[in-house]
Design brief:
With 112 residues, the chain is α+β, with helices and mostly antiparallel strands. It has a five-stranded antiparallel beta sheet, with helices on one face. A hairpin with a 2-residue loop joins strand 4 and strand 5. The protein is globular, with a radius of gyration of 13 Å. The two termini are 12 Å apart.
Length: 112
């Protein structure tokens, strides 16, 4: 994992961002089961970038907040300039994709 990413830990919350301070101009949320938070954040960030790499000035941010059943995940990021309303729908669809969710959690649970 690249040192170009900032990992911020605060009160159990883990935030992965390219720039500080982390900022959500666009975002969507979901719940995921327990897994290693930094690895999980990187897995989500990779697919978020793949899905929105054509969005000019986009910089991904993933925040994981602990819940009773795992993690409340907020994914999105900064956008330089305007973004279409469909961007948040794209993020929501990514977070809802069953195959991606399964892969993220499986990878974040694997020992490395």
């Amino acid at each position: 994992m690249s040192p170009r990413w900032h990992i911020t830990h605060q009160d159990g919350t883990v935030t992965l961002s390219r720039h500080l301070p982390a900022r959500f101009d666009v975002a969507a949320s979901t719940q995921l089961p327990p897994a290693r938070p930094v690895r999980l954040a990187h897995q989500i960030r990779q697919d978020l970038w793949r899905g929105l790499s054509n969005l000019r000035g986009f910089s991904p941010v993933v925040r994981l907040e602990p819940t009773e059943n795992g993690w409340e995940v907020t994914a999105g990021g900064r956008v330089m300039g305007r973004s279409a309303p469909s961007v948040e729908a794209t993020i929501d669809a990514l977070l809802s994709d069953p195959a991606k969710r399964t892969r993220w959690v499986r990878q974040a649970r694997m020992m490395s």
